[in-house]
Amino acid sequence: MKIKQEQCQTFYFKLHNINNDVTHLKREIQQLSGYKPVYQILNIIQLSSLVSCFKISSCLGQLQDEIHEIKTRCSHNMIQLDFLKSNIVRTHTIELNNLQVERDSLITQTELIKYNLFEQIQQYDNIVESYRASLSSFRLTLIELEQQLKEQTDNELLRLQISNLC
Question: Which helix (H) or strand (E) segment is 101 a member of?
Answer without folding.
Answer: helix 38-165
